[in-house]
Amino acid sequence: MRVSFAQVKQNIPLLTVAKSYGVALRRSGSELIGPCPLHNGDNPTAFHLNPDKNRWRCFTQCGYGDVIDFVANMEGCSLLDAAVQLATDYVPGLVQDVHPFLLSRGFDRDTLKRFSIKYSNTGRWKGMITVPIHDPSGLYMGIMARRLKHLDRGKYFIQSGLKRSQILYNYHRINPTNQIIVTEGPFDVLRLYQAGYTNAIALLGTQLSNFQLSLLVDCTVLLMLDQDEAGQRAAEQIQNKLKQVSSLTLPAKDPAELSPFALRTVLTAQGIIP
Fold first, then answer.
1. Is 120 domain-assigned?
2. How many CB atoms lie within 10 A of CB 29?
3. Is the residue at 274 inside a domain?
4. What is the spatial distance between Cα 263 and Cα 266, in angstroms, rounded to a whole number?
5. Which of 40, 131, 181, 226 could cross-link to 144 by cystine, CB 3.0-4.6 Å?
6. How many CA atoms lie within 13 A of 35 on its CB side?
7. Taking the CB of residue 105, how many other CB atoms lie within 10 A of it?
8. CATH (domain of 41)
9. What is the tens place of the pLDDT at every residue in 115-159?
């Protein structure tokens, strides 16, 4: 894959990347300072980050550089690998192949393009399906990835610095004044979209945090959580927290396991029209 180093440096904020690694910095004039994360030093003023120049400097041993140098040092990889990883993680519209797994699950290319769902063959997300995450206003926050192998480590992996409790996947695209379908995962949202139901979001799990509750408390909500024990237990707990809420039982583990036609048939039979 060819990546423009200049484009990466110009379009990806170093501060955003540093925060994704959990780097703790405090404001000092026009710069942000803190211990250097590149060599795990304990000098509280060794590392300086200038967000305006998109540059960093370590005044003890690591030298200076840009966003690509920063990731190369953090990951112990080449500059090219760092640039590709950054482009994969942060540059919207980066062209990647659609993995056969997605097509075999019945997700069409138009839907995957709409939600920017991609397969990464480079960088940190190599071998994973990447799902962009946005805050409720639509601001890009980072990546959630779906493993295709090594599922013993967990099916989903979320970028460092992101908290599931602060996310409602796809909330920025919906109309909260209409009935909202609440699911567990992003692929449930995609399947509902293919079935014609565009007002769907995902909790990225089974827990409803106070932040998520604040966005849904006055909404009309239809729960379509997984049909396993955890999902049904969560549905009962969530129904006690919301004012206008109902729950739908599916003839499958989750919405993503049904075809768009089957899902629409189930919903319309319950009087739920797109």
1. yes
2. 8
3. no
4. 5
5. 131
6. 9
7. 13
8. 3.90.580.10
9. 989 888 777 787 889 999 999 999 888 889 998 888 888 888 888
Residue with tokens 């849904």: 216
Number of domains in the chain: 3
Q: How far apart are the C-alpha atoms of 172 and 156, rounded to whole Å?
A: 21
Domain boundary among 114, 133, 161: 161
> Of all helices (H) and strands (E), which one includes residue 104?
helix 100-104
Same domain membership, residue 204 and residue 248: yes
For residue 56, CA distances in Å to 49, 52, 90 come to: 4, 11, 19
Q: What amino acid is encoded at 255 in this protein?
A: P
- Residues 155-191 have pLDDT tens digits of 888 888 889 999 999 999 999 999 999 999 999 999 9
Of 34, 197, 204, nearest to 133 (Cα)? 204
In a domain, 166, yes or no: no
- Parallel, antiparallel or unpaired: strands 244-247 and 118-120: unpaired
For the four alpha carbons of 121, 126, 130 and 132, in that order, the dihedral sign comes to: negative
pLDDT band at 222 (very low <50, low <70, confident <90, very high): very high
User: Residue 224's domain is classified under what CATH number?
Assistant: 3.40.1360.10
**Residue 202 burial by CB count (10 A; 0-12/13-18/19+): exposed, middle or buried?**
buried
